[in-house]
Write a structure and sequence with these properties.
The complex is a heterodimer of chains A (181) and B (92). Chain A is mostly helical and 181 residues long. Chain A contains 9 helices and no strands. In chain A, helix 3 packs across helix 5 and helix 8 (143-152) crosses helix 9 (156-177). Chain B has 92 residues and is mostly helical. In chain B, helix 2 (25-32) packs across helix 4. The chains are: A mainly alpha (181), B mainly alpha (92). Chains A and B meet through helix 2, helix 5, helix 6, helix 7 and helix 8 of A and helix 1, helix 2, helix 3 and helix 4 of B.
């Protein structure tokens, strides 16, 4: 019992151990709810909900009517759980930065590359997230929804997506880090 | 009931991500620099475990697979290419 508490309080587990936990969660999602884990789709459901309320005409498209119907879906609730689960994980290892001074821009490596300014972190985070969500819309899923959930059902799309993700990710990292790569 | 399951599974999902360190910028971007392989180890372990479990359960007739993400080669590939840019920039 003590051993379990000691493990939970650790800041980082071996990625293999955490991966096994995620694998089990993926199995349970299919077994209990007949659903696949995913994150990007839920944001589209929420965006559709918001868009239909504000500008119903602009959102009366094929995509928002049939591909990603708006609403509080299973995935949206899953996201709420992810948020609190992540917080719980950080709190259990006492690395939760809620309210602390460097909470808005805490990563030392980020500060070294881009500078310590908070606005830079938030601007780039916002723009990058737009790129991510847009790309996820094109591909039909994100890292969790397509690469992991698709991959575990051996869908070819997942492996195409992973290949593309690494190709451009490596290139972007090369451009950012240059000599430091 | 279904929503309660989603909430619980989501919590474990977030917990696993946090414990693997994937909530940090440096873990994601260092994967693309190949100085820290945590992302790939985490993803592939999850894939293998879930694959074995799901295909085993289907073999026993206990589950039917939900509708799988559809494959359209250009879309998946282009989407992945754009996705990688965002991922390396933000570390999300």
């Amino acid at each position: 019992m003590n051993w379990i508490f000691k493990q939970i309080r650790k800041e980082t587990w071996s990625p293999y151990a955490a991966g096994i936990l995620l694998g089990i969660v993926g199995i349970l999602a299919v077994l209990l709810s007949n659903a696949l884990l995913g994150a990007s789709g839920a944001f589209e459901n929420l965006a559709g909900l918001l868009g239909k309320a504000i500008a119903p005409k602009a959102f009366d498209t094929l995509y928002f009517n049939f591909v990603m119907p708006p609403g509080i879906t299973w995935g949206v609730i899953l996201l709420v759980g992810v948020f609190f689960g992540g917080m719980l994980g950080a709190a259990s290892s006492r690395t939760l930065k809620w309210g602390s001074k460097d909470a808005a821009n805490s990563d030392p490596q980020w500060k070294r590359i881009f500078g310590p300014q908070v606005w830079k972190r938030w601007t780039l985070g916002f723009l990058g997230a737009i790129i991510l969500e847009y790309a996820a819309g094109i591909a039909g899923g994100c890292t969790s929804g397509l690469a992991i959930s698709g991959g575990m059902l051996l869908v070819p799309a997942a492996f195409l997506f992973i290949a593309g993700m690494f190709a451009s990710g490596i290139l972007t990292a090369l451009l950012i880090y240059r000599k430091g790569y | 009931m279904n929503y309660l399951i989603a909430l619980c599974l989501g919590a474990f999902f977030g917990f696993a991500l946090n414990k693997a360190g994937l909530t940090q910028y440096n873990k994601i971007v260092n994967q693309f620099r190949f100085t820290d392989m945590a992302v790939l180890k985490f993803m592939m372990t999850a894939l293998v475990v879930a694959m074995i479990g799901l295909y085993g359960l289907r073999g026993l007739g206990l589950v039917t697979f939900p509708p799988v993400p559809s494959t359209y080669i250009l879309g998946n590939l282009v989407g992945g290419l754009i996705f990688g840019i965002g991922m390396a920039l933000t570390g999300y």
